[in-house]
Design a protein that fits this description.
250 residues; alpha/beta; 5-stranded mixed β-sheet; 13 strands; 29% helix; binds S-adenosylmethionine
């Protein structure tokens, strides 16, 4: 049988949010490749080899997956959430472009997953219901001044925003600087949502006015959402519901 390569999103955590299409690919795979905690979400079974690796070796992992598919294996590269959102799909295409021409004849498919910002938004209401953008706050793969520029321009354009990778032990300062910039440019009390470990047993949701947001409210398991200037809160029996109206007055 000829090999193939699928780049699949496992969703935010809950098994119920792994799509049937991704489950079917995993059921047919001979090899699963990915970052250690994501590969740990795939059930072991006879005939399936799990290749878990550290997060810092994305391109090596992608090349390994392509090599195995070229050798006739049925390979699934797994990411959390969606594989095209700050994840492995781009890394595989980078490796493909840099690799042997023969790799380009492979059967390669990307299977979407539910990304963290959409799972978080759904939990709290509809804070991304109008125009929004997603920004990765890690400066591992881009300079910090580019992050600040994008934050400032997105705030000036009144986008709602989703922030991935807000804060880690290796990057303790960046999120505080991002908050200070947003508090300064936005200048209002629009809601900020700290959604941690969404859809897992450790899930927490917290809504605070932007001026009260603190750096230690986020960690690497948190996606942070910020409303636009029209975002509203309805206090419900089970907690706040946050939504951004569908229209903006001319
Ligand atoms: C390297 S990015 C991967 C994003 C992933 N591809 C996606 O589409 O959700 C990792 C970041 O995603 C966010 N994230 C992933 N899963 C999450 C969850 N279940 N709850 C909250 N945030 C999550 C966090 O901001 C985390 O730092």
């Amino acid at each position: 049988m000829s090999g193939w390569l699928v780049i699949a999103g496992l969703g935010p955590g809950a098994q119920a949010q792994v799509t049937p299409e991704v489950q079917a690919a995993l059921a047919e795979a001979t090899d699963v490749v990915g970052y250690i905690p994501y590969v740990a979400r795939v059930a072991e079974r006879p005939g399936l080899t799990l290749h878990a690796s550290d997060n810092r070796v994305e391109l090596d992992r992608a090349a390994h997956a392509l090599e195995m598919a070229a050798d006739g294996r049925r390979v699934v590269v797994v990411s959390s959430g969606d594989p095209g959102v700050f994840a492995m799909a781009s890394a595989v295409f980078e490796a493909l472009e840099a690799g042997p021409a023969a790799w380009r004849t492979l059967d390669i498919r990307v299977l979407p997953g539910i990304t963290a910002m959409l799972a978080a938004a759904a939990r709290i209401g509809a804070p991304l219901g109008h125009d929004f953008c997603a920004i990765n706050l890690s400066d591992n793969l881009k300079p910090w001044n580019l992050i600040e520029k994008r934050l400032r321009l997105a705030a000036e354009a009144d986008f709602a925003m989703a922030f991935y990778n807000p804060r880690s032990k290796a990057r303790p300062e960046g999120f505080g600087k991002a908050l200070a910039l947003l508090q300064d440019v936005c200048g209002d009390a629009r809601p900020m949502i700290f959604a941690r470990a969404v859809t897992t047993p450790e899930e927490t949701m917290r809504v605070v006015p932007l001026p009260e947001a603190q750096p230690d409210m986020a960690d690497m398991r948190t996606v942070v959402l910020l409303g636009n200037s029209t975002t509203r809160i309805i206090e419900g029996a089970t907690g706040p519901m946050v939504y951004t109206p569908r229209s903006v007055q001319a």
